[in-house]
């Protein structure tokens, strides 16, 4: 299996023409005075939104590198900005990172120059979404699970299975789940369906929800078509989902800890769980542009992103999990063991991280259904086809 | 001998003035080049790029765009799931336009013919006011109003009229767990958001209908209904059509309202937005984007035949 994966990766490399160990920085020079970063909104805070959340000012004082942030709202925007150039770093998610590597937009990272690299969660150090052929193309930033959020007044006990959002049934309050559950309005939700089938239809032989052959893919779509009858609106924007839980009578849905925390803070009766089937999740990586103009400041920032209060405070701010496990407990920031557990820190092994489905997968060349078909078919499913 | 009465040029500006005076075409070219470049390169150029992309197709196997001319992508538009999107969008645009016209006409008629002085100003303000606040704020506000536990649902429950809403929501095609998740909600919000674009051109057209003609028709013995049907309506028609062009094309292209209100079923704009993204299926996105252009061309041709542009 591992061999197969390796072969697939090698094939992908041959196909896309990645040559490993491109020129990488071998030693650090004097800081250039600035660094520009493409980041998700809320990822790089300098105390302007909320005074308590600041992981930039101290870095600027200590390193002399001014931090310029360009926020991007989607992975596609990030890829587009990196293709344009002019930036040093990007906080890329799993659906963008390999595209950036394949497109030669990012350069390998010399982990010897980042002293805190060894503090990174070992399970993330060689994660396939930033490591190609043993070469690291970035430094893990943050990760989080896609949890099952539920209304505690309806579910006295946490639901143990995703079936509450996939199959028509009566919820514990005696009423049907029809019209009272939601699903994510993105084609990647097909992976959630596939993951559900992994547990409930083992005869399909799904090994990864992101690598589906035609039969497995068809089964996942059929499940989603049945789900369409239960879902009155798919969620796309975190704040719309929050509103739907408050005003629309929605009681269960796949969600992010971000929404769960905000709703709880608002006094709403919600909680979240990771059901027995496991969950999908996202993991972001700080990657460095191939033509970065400020490599020294970029390296200093990558070290800062692991060593400072950033991991700990950002985890609280964003409802995510630090890539450096020590950040939960060593008091460098606001995270505590409890807050990390609430964000899903202990559930790493139950999570299958987001990667872009490609046609050449571990099942063979061209054996899997590529992402563009996920998009057009999911449009059809939501349209009632 | 006296020197000819030519004043020495006093600098660059003078020389330029002289040049423009001797060669007026130079000035014309200078003035026209920037807007023409804008129109030609940026505006038409991007449209041409769009058209070009729509004739490419994505390789089924690798998901890479193949730069060869083919009609395959347009063929994909006819696949049931994609065709649904086109039909859904056009029906919605047509319904919204008809409803806006029906709602706007009495308002525009009153504002144009009866409102005077302060009232007229108040009318203008009332129509324009919604345009001053953010589009997104208005859509989110409507989401709250239409929500299951929103004010409409609450009022219906208090007055024991929930059965009306439930009845509407059980009509096939309009189902939803509340107004805000039903196509009815999408329709209502579209109507609200685009209504000013219908009222304003209508009002302008109605104001141009001369009162003398109405008096003449009365003198000739026409009843009010007859006068309305044979005088006011035909003369105001260009305004109605101008307004309908706005509401129709704006609904065809919008992708934010159906994303926030409604049952998440795709409209053309949403499909374009998704397809050009991570999917990288730019040819299909471009083909989708060409459809509203074609529909509007047909619509404008029909409007022209009905005389919508005669007043221009």
From TrEMBL, chain A:
Q: Which InterPro entries match?
A: SBP, Sperm_putr-bd
> Where, per UniProt, does this protein localize?
Periplasm
Major localization listed first in the record, in broad terms: periplasm
Signal peptide positions on this chain:
1-23
What SUPFAM superfamilies does the record tag this protein with?
Periplasmic binding protein-like II
What keywords are annotated for this sequence in UniProt? Periplasm, Signal, Transport
Q: Which PANTHER family match?
A: BIFUNCTIONAL POLYHYDROXYBUTYRATE SYNTHASE _ ABC TRANSPORTER PERIPLASMIC BINDING PROTEIN-RELATED (PTHR30222:SF18), SPERMIDINE/PUTRESCINE-BINDING PERIPLASMIC PROTEIN (PTHR30222)
Q: Please identify the protein, giving its name as recorded.
A: ABC transporter substrate-binding protein
Q: Which organism is it from?
A: Tabrizicola soli
UniProtKB/TrEMBL annotation, chain B:
UniProt KW keywords:
Cell membrane, Membrane, Transmembrane, Transmembrane helix, Transport
Answer yes or no on keyword Transmembrane: yes
| Family matches, as InterPro entries | MetI-like, MetI-like_sf
* Parts of the chain that traverse the membrane: 26-52, 85-109, 121-141, 184-206, 227-250, 282-302
Q: Does the keyword Cytoplasm apply?
A: no
**A family per Pfam:** BPD_transp_1
Q: How does it sit in the membrane?
A: Multi-pass membrane protein
Q: Where in the cell is it found?
A: Cell membrane
Domain ABC transmembrane type-1 stretches: 86-303
The record, for PANTHER family, names:
INNER MEMBRANE ABC TRANSPORTER PERMEASE PROTEIN YDCU-RELATED, INNER MEMBRANE ABC TRANSPORTER PERMEASE PROTEIN YDCU-RELATED-RELATED
Q: Which family does it belong to?
A: Belongs to the binding-protein-dependent transport system permease family. CysTW subfamily.
Q: What is this protein called?
A: ABC transporter permease
Origin organism is: Tabrizicola soli
């Amino acid at each position: 299996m591992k061999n197969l994966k390796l072969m697939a990766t090698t094939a992908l490399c041959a196909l896309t023409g990645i040559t490993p160990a491109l020129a990488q920085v071998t030693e650090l020079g004097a800081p250039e005075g600035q660094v520009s970063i493409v980041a998700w909104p809320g990822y790089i805070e300098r105390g302007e939104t909320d005074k308590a959340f600041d992981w930039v000012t101290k870095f600027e004082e200590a390193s002399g590198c001014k931090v310029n942030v360009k926020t991007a709202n989607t992975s596609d925007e990030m890829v587009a900005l990196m293709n344009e150039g002019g930036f040093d770093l990007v906080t890329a998610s799993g659906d963008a990172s390999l595209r950036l590597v394949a497109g030669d937009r990012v350069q390998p990272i010399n982990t010897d120059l980042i002293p805190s690299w060894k503090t990174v969660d070992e399970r993330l150090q060689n994660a396939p979404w930033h490591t190609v052929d043993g070469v690291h193309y970035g430094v893990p930033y943050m990760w989080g699970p896609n949890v099952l959020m539920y209304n505690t007044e309806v579910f006295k006990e946490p639901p143990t299975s995703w079936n509450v959002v996939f199959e028509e049934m009566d919820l514990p309050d005696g009423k049907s789940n029809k019209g009272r559950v939601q699903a994510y309005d993105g084609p990647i939700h097909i992976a959630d369906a596939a993951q559900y089938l992994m547990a409930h239809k083992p005869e399909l032989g799904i090994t990864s929800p992101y690598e589906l052959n035609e039969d497995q893919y068809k089964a996942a779509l059929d499940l989603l078509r049945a789900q369409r009858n239960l879902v009155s609106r798919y969620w796309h924007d975190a704040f719309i989902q929050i509103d739907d839980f408050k005003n629309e009578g929605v009681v269960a849905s796949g969600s992010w800890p971000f929404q769960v925390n905000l709703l709880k803070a608002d006094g709403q009766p919600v909680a979240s769980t990771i059901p027995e089937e496991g969950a999908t999740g996202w993991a972001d990586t700080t990657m460095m542009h191939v033509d970065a103009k400020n490599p020294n400041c970029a390296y200093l920032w990558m070290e800062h992103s692991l060593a400072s209060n950033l991991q700990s405070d950002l985890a609280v701010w964003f409802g995510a999990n630090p890539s450096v496990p020590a950040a939960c407990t060593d008091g460098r920031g606001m995270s505590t063991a409890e807050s990390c557990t609430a964000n899903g820190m202990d559930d790493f092994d139950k999570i299958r991280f987001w990667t872009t489905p490609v046609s050449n997968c571990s099942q063979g060349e061209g054996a899997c259904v590529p992402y563009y078909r996920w998009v057009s078919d999911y449009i059809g499913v939501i349209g009632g086809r | 001998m006296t020197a000819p009465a030519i004043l020495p040029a006093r600098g660059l500006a003078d020389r330029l003035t002289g040049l423009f005076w001797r060669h007026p075409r130079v000035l014309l070219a200078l003035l026209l080049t920037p807007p023409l470049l804008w129109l030609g390169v940026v505006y038409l150029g991007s449209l041409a790029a769009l058209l070009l992309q729509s004739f490419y197709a994505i390789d089924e196997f690798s998901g890479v765009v193949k730069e060869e001319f083919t009609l395959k992508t347009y063929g994909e538009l006819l696949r049931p799931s994609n065709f649904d999107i086109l039909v859904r969008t056009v029906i919605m645009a047509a319904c919204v336009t008809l409803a806006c016209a029906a709602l706007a006409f009495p308002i525009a008629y009153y504002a144009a013919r009866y409102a005077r002085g302060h009232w007229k100003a108040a009318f203008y303000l009332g129509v324009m006011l919604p345009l001053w606040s953010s589009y997104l704020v208005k859509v989110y506000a409507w989401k709250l109003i239409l929500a299951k536990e929103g004010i409409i649902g609450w009022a219906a429950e208090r007055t024991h009229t929930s059965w009306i809403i439930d009845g509407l929501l059980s009509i096939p095609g309009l189902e939803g767990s509340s107004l805000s998740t039903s196509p009815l909600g999408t329709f209502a919000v579209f109507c609200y958001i685009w209504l000013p674009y219908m009222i304003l051109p209508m009002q302008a057209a109605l104001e141009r209908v001369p009162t003398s003609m109405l008096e003449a028709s009365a003198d000739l013995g026409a009843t009010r209904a007859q006068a309305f049907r044979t005088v006011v309506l035909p003369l105001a028609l260009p305004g109605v059509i101008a307004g309908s062009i706005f509401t129709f094309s704006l609904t065809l292209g919008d992708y934010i309202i159906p994303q926030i209100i409604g049952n998440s079923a795709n409209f053309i704009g949403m499909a374009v937005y998704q397809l050009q993204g991570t999917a990288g299926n730019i040819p299909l996105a471009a083909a989708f984007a060409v459809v509203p252009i074609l529909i509007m061309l047909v619509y404008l041709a029909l409007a022209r035949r009905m005389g919508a542009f005669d007043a221009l």
